[in-house]
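Structure first, sequence second, as always.
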């Protein structure tokens, strides 16, 4: 094998922790080189990385409304694994005909990962990755500090390492998984069209928080600009961080990472949705789910 890659979009860090643990453990188990590709910040998504035969890519994204985050999806869909399909085999393709091994990994904030894992698997398969394993891990919810609080914790990360070591073992004992016929890893979820989760609050009212943006308490804000540098959409004005010029995906990075606690979302429907989620899923301990090729 060549490179073992942790590739992730992770505004509040949970997804990154999980896939980094996996990829590092896999690299240690196999003696391969470890590579980290963090595509959270806008400047890191200018061009899509490309992989080939014998690369192993742990590909992590958070679940947003039951799906792969939609504004980032086109970028994910341009990352190639280069497995050629039988009819178009061209042995001159960089990376050969066998393609990269891909491990789709999603994290979710204690409610459900719905169709996100199957969607990520399908994106990877369509792009020529050979998915041989997959995982869904609970991780602290972007909206909350009580939903899946502190996850992934030490136990989760040990499990992530064990998962990666097991995949290394499976690939060692089944070299045919690296080439030739391939069956995508089976994971829960509906086939296309994938379903978005529809958040409702009291009286069954569905919410639409697409235009909601964080507010800044200017008595706390020091204007350090950290929030602007951390915004995955590059939407916060660096000269005046109290202004969100463009779209907000509610990822929570600016709120959770502001050293002064100056950012918050005060929208009524957002807060009501958060309250209901905390009420229903706050005391639930979800387990990571791991899927292997058998
Ligand atoms: C817009 C948005 C929608 C979300 N939708 C879901 C969801 O449908 N189910 C769920 O359990 N968690 C949901 N979450 C929570 C994230 O999936 C979870 O916190 C994730 O682990 C965050 O990853 P990160 O720490 O790498 O940013 C959502 C978060 C955001 C920002």
């Amino acid at each position: 094998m060549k490179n073992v890659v942790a590739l992730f979009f992770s505004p509040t860090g949970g997804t990154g922790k999980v896939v980094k643990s996996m990829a590092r453990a896999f690299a240690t188990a196999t003696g391969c080189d470890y590579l980290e590709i963090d595509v959270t910040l806008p400047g890191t998504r200018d061009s899509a990385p490309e992989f080939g035969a014998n690369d192993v890519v742990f590909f992590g994204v958070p679940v947003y409304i039951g799906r792969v985050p939609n504004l980032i999806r086109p970028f994910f869909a341009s990352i190639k694994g280069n497995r050629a399909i039988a009819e178009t085999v061209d042995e001159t393709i960089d990376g050969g005909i066998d393609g990269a091994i891909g491990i789709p990994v999603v994290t979710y904030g204690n409610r459900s990962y719905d169709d996100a894992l199957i969607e990520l698997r399908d994106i990877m398969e369509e792009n020529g990755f050979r998915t041989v394993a997959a995982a869904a891990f609970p991780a602290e919810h972007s909206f909350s500090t009580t939903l899946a609080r502190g996850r992934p914790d030490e136990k989760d990360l040990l499990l992530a390492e064990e998962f990666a070591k097991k995949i290394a073992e499976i690939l060692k004992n089944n070299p045919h998984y690296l080439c030739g016929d391939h069956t995508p890893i089976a994971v829960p979820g509906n086939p296309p069209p994938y379903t978005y989760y529809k958040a409702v609050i009291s009286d069954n009212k569905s919410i639409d928080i697409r235009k909601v943006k964080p507010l800044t308490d200017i008595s706390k804000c020091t204007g350090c600009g950290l929030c602007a540098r951390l915004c995955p959409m590059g939407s916060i004005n660096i000269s005046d961080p109290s202004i969100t010029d463009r779209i907000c995906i509610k990822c929570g990075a600016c709120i959770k990472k502001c050293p002064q606690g100056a950012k918050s979302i005060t929208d009524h429907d957002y807060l009501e949705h958060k309250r209901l989620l905390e009420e229903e899923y706050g005391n639930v301990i979800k387990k990571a789910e791991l899927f292997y090729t058998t």
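Margin note: Strands lie at 3-8, 33-38, 56-62, 101-108, 130-131, 133-138, 215-216, 263-264, 289-292.
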